[in-house]
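Section 5: illustrative case.
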């Protein structure tokens, strides 16, 4: 089973590296500078679950390889259009695409752009970042990869075989691989949690623990969680009571160092996935006539950051 991973950043680099460790047939589609970096030092993973340095196969164009069986799309949402354009020539009717992006909106977009492929749902429960030195740094003990079929993409014999093969490779690695018969609810569950986590930590520019140390921090976080939950309910994907209790526990843990990766992007002056995640949440709230004022404030904050980052607006002139 041939696996192509689009991007060797944090998520793609971590899971791809672990699959290489397990003997998987993995190739990375990367930019020239990343290809040179990987050629010079290998794919370096620094993790509390075990460090790794692997020689990996890289390509600059899909013209260099046979058609892969499964393509992991592990880019940021704002790089998705370019990523799909880069792989379009190697995607056929037997190709499975496994996106590992945050959010929901990208799934239908991929299906529209590459209708010949089968698109699975994918979830990465992973805290990871790519260092300036090219090392993939794992920030906690979570490293779960969930995948499964979605409505409108019934499982064929071919895709069932590929799912079995991927699960087998994951089982041989250190990654916690989970195959879900129906992953849509899981995708929405993470979307609820991520909307609240990203909105709170980016708006306050602080960790969950730091926000909770303020008099009104918990109220803010739970308001964001409630707004996101009501959006999911309106879409037909309400989380169960046990799931909500887990969310509340994670988001109200005193002293928690948790932040969204979006906050790390802000701190590095990089673009964010604000529109893909919070923009989508707010748009769905408006569609269902759901009041989401706190999510709107967080989204506006991030939109203002993007304007400042790109210099799209002229600074106000004094009089």
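Designed sequence:
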């Amino acid at each position: 089973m041939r696996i192509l991973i689009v991007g060797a950043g944090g998520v793609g680099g971590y899971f791809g590296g672990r699959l290489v460790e397990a003997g998987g047939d993995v190739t990375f589609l990367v930019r020239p500078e990343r290809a040179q970096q990987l050629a010079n030092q290998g794919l370096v993973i620094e993790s509390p679950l075990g460090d790794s340095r692997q020689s990996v196969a890289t390509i600059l164009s899909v013209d260099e390889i046979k058609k892969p069986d499964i393509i992991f799309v592990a880019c940021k949402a704002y790089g998705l259009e370019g990523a799909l354009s880069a792989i379009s020539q190697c995607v056929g009717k037997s190709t499975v695409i496994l996106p590992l992006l945050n959010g929901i909106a990208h799934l239908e977009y991929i299906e529209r752009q590459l209708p010949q492929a089968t698109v699975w749902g994918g979830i990465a429960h992973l805290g990871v970042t790519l260092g300036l030195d090219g090392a993939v740094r794992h920030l906690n003990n979570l490293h779960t990869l969930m995948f499964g079929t979605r409505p409108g993409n019934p499982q064929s014999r071919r895709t069932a075989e590929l799912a079995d093969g991927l699960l087998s490779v994951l089982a041989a690695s250190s990654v916690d691989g989970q195959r879900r018969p129906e992953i849509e609810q899981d995708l929405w569950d993470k979307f609820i949690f991520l909307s609240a986590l990203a909105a709170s930590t980016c708006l306050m520019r602080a960790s969950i623990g730091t926000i909770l140390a303020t008099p009104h921090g918990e109220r803010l976080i739970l308001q964001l969680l409630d707004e996101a939950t009501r959006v999911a309910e309106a879409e037909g994907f309400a989380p169960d009571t046990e799931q909500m209790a887990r969310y509340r526990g994670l988001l109200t843990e005193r002293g928690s160092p948790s932040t969204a990766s979006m906050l790390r992007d802000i701190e590095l002056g990089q673009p964010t996935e604000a529109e893909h995640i919070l923009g989508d949440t707010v748009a769905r709230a408006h569609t269902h006539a759901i009041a989401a004022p706190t999510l709107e404030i967080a989204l506006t904050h991030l939109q203002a950051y993007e304007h400042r980052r790109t210099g799209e607006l002229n600074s106000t002139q004094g009089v």
